[in-house]
Amino acid sequence: MVMTTQDHQAKAQSYSFRFRAMNTEIEAFVFCTEEQVAPTQRLVFDWFQAAERRFSRFLPASELSYLNRLTGQTCLVSEAMLEVLLLAESYTRLTEGIFQPLILKALEQSGYNQSFELMEHGPNYRIQLTADRTQANDDLRIVTNSSMKSVLLPTDAKMDLGGIVKSWAVKRLAGWLQKQHGLQSGMINAGGDLAVWGRPDGGSGAWRIGIENPWKADQVIGILALDHGAVATSSKLGRQWDTEHGKMHHLIDPRSMRPSESDVLQCTVTGEDVLECEIWSKVICILGYEEGAALFTKKTSGYEALVFTEKGEVHKIGELENFQGGDNIG
């Protein structure tokens, strides 16, 4: 018997599942049949676990850790690693060097030297702010060779891919679920980097994405309504710690190789591609509102942003017609 689209939709329903991987919370909502839900859940779980094993800087046996131990040497890499490094290289150029994966030494020297939940916190947490500012220049780059599937990291520079790999994993998985597995509707969210397609219930509604209030924990400041596309949020507040030198956070400014001192606390970017959204949300946080908005507007098309500053201001970049927020947001 051949099942019609109407019959298939009649059997499909919404399912959700959550778990932790890649040092963040992963959640998936899919609209599928009962027969599809178990293999879909397994695929989502296995994919993010595999991405963590390959790209985590906290796992000594990961491919990323292997590359960081062999700086200054040409190394063969997996197809997945080469794909991510080529994307990183292209975004470094696009953002005029502000997106920079070769910042691991600066992260470690600022105190982020182990998984965040294991870190010490408090004013007596001693760190050494000795990041080599001579490395903050145009020569700090990864050399890739696509035909050889090889990479060369600069001597004494170490790489962190936390600023790109979660959204890459979300984008890849969302594509597979739609094209290879035929899921007409779904959302994949990795710690605030999320992609949606179709309708959340197979009907006519839109996905409603809550934007966290940076000044009031566990409160939503507004809602983005999407029927497709992506959203990513970056913040100085989520991974922040106290040290003897004051508060530190994980968003490193490659011009100083120190945590950014810009006026932006949090930035949400929405558009078609979750990778693009993640990169630009971080770049705006690092550069600050005025400089970040100027570069974002110059370099992107079809993307919009919501920016929260240390002064309590909220700025829109673009019309953001699908955003519903408080009266103080303009």
Automatic annotation (TrEMBL):
Reactions mediated catalytically: L-threonyl-[protein] + FAD = FMN-L-threonyl-[protein] + AMP + H(+)
Stored InterPro entries: ApbE (IPR024932), ApbE-like_sf (IPR003374)
Enzyme class: transferase
Gene3D superfamilies the record matches: ApbE-like domains (3.10.520.10)
Highest taxon above the source species: Bacteria
Pfam family, one: ApbE
EC number annotated for this UniProt entry: 2.7.1.180
Keywords from the UniProt entry: FAD, Flavoprotein, Magnesium, Metal-binding, Transferase
GO MF annotation list: transferase activity
Recorded family membership: Belongs to the ApbE family.
Protein name per the record: FAD:protein FMN transferase
Lineage start: Bacteria, Bacillati, Bacillota, Bacilli, Bacillales
